[in-house]
């Protein structure tokens, strides 16, 4: 029987519900955590760690975080609301994204990586 990783099957975080994420145990190796990242109005790059294949992020702050490429703005990025999470599964070793908050705002982001 082949096990597959499933991206978020149900994500109702914007409605105040807890999202449901299922990941096959057989495809996950060691998990490591980084120090909390403080996201500000200045976009900062987040890169996948060496020998990691998946990354999960969670906004643990009280303000939205916006995700995108190097030119991301709070008006153009993909929103990650407080206590919402996002899984980037089976990414390339060159994977990266930028994170930013609206002007004058800050938020904390937790990050876990999987080998």
Describe the structure.
- It is a single chain.
- The chain is an all-beta fold.
- 0% of the residues lie in helices and 42% in strands.
- It has a single domain, classed as Sandwich (Jelly Rolls).
- It is built from no helices and eleven strands.
- Strands 3, 4, 6, 9 and 11 form a five-stranded antiparallel sheet that branches.
- Mean pLDDT is 83; it is low at 1-15.
What fold name goes in the CATH topology slot?
Jelly Rolls
Gap between N and C termini: 22 Å
Helix-strand pattern: EEEEEEEEEEE
Q: C-alpha Rg, in Å? A: 14 Å
- Identify the quaternary structure here: single chain
Mean pLDDT metric: 83
Which CATH class applies here? Mainly Beta
């Amino acid at each position: 029987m082949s096990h597959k990783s499933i991206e978020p099957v149900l994500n109702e975080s914007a409605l105040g519900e807890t999202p449901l994420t299922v990941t096959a145990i057989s495809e996950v190796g060691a998990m490591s955590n980084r120090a909390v990242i403080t996201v500000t109005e200045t976009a900062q790059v987040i890169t996948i760690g060496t020998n990691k294949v998946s990354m999960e992020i969670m906004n643990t702050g009280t303000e939205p975080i916006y995700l995108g490429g190097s030119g991301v703005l709070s008006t153009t990025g993909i929103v990650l609301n407080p206590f919402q999470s996002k899984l980037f599964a089976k990414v390339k070793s060159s994977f990266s994204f930028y994170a930013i908050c609206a002007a004058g705002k800050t938020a904390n982001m937790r990050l876990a990586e999987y080998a």
